[in-house]
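We treat protein structure as text, and this decision shapes the records that our systems exchange. The tokens are whole numbers drawn from a learned vocabulary of local backbone shapes. Below, we set out a record of this kind in full and without editing:
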Amino acid sequence: MVSKTLRRIFVVAAAAVLLSRAASGQQLIIKGMYGMYAGTQAPPGLYVGMFGNVNWQDEIKGPNGNAVKGPSLTQEIFGPLIQWVSPYKILGGNYSAVVAIPFANFALDFPRLDNQGASTGLALSQLYVSPFQLGWHSDKPMPIFNGGTDVLFAYTFYAPTGRYTPGALDNTSFGMWCNEISLRATGFIGKEKEWSAAGALFYDINSKKQDVDWKQGNAINYMWGVGHTFGEKQTLMSGWFGVAGYAQWQVSSTTGVEVPEILQNNKSTVYGVGPELTALQGALTVRYFWQYGAKTSTQGRGLYVQFAMPLGK
């Protein structure tokens, strides 16, 4: 049997052939962060909570989808979040804002496998700030969605507040800014809005990385969810369950004199799908994903958990 050390050497060497030594940078958005109620804004009030995301990656997929399997890499990110939904309206929509302070064991800034030598403990990652959100709610029946619709528009930025050194394995930041525009919607079916379907579109605009001539290509992200409610409304154990998924497409080329040619000519892609369960009147959300269809990226499984509760209006 091949030893673990030899296996690691093989995976690193094969990955180098597929993707070159410093492979494609990843995007900052957390894949699967939104699902079945992606376009629904919480009622006016102040909310605090925690979020966590764990990714288990065991494949590197090349530009043509060819795979190299290897030791599993586990990436962890979690942190507190705070959201304020105001009673004040702009253009008919409620204004809201969200701030999250994530911590990570390391940032997966290029496709690789194996944690060895990567994590030196949890540290601050990239600050998430969504200072401008507008949410609209309508009970007016629409084609298909006879229970009404919710729509949310948001501007978000990610600041490089974590540890970053070009080429280091233990970075907890990507060393770049990202500006994100998103439009999300949730449609309801049934008199009691027992069925729902949601879709969320994000466009991420990345800056150059710090201290290196490398600008990561921009990406379009699509997240969705379909499901059904359960439990009596206004009871503690009420919520919804169903299926959620996402797609991420890099839409512009990665550029810079230090970017390998293979990465300038190829863009990353990855998809995910899995179950979603939200309980405690929407306070607790759990999503589990299997990734597929990846190119110029790692591929594996992911878990997203979020808990938030109101502090008051």
User: Anything to note?
Assistant: Residues 1-25 have pLDDT under 50 and may be disordered. The CA atoms of residues 254 and 264 lie 5 Å apart. Helices lie at 4-19, 261-264. The first helix runs from residue 4 to 19.
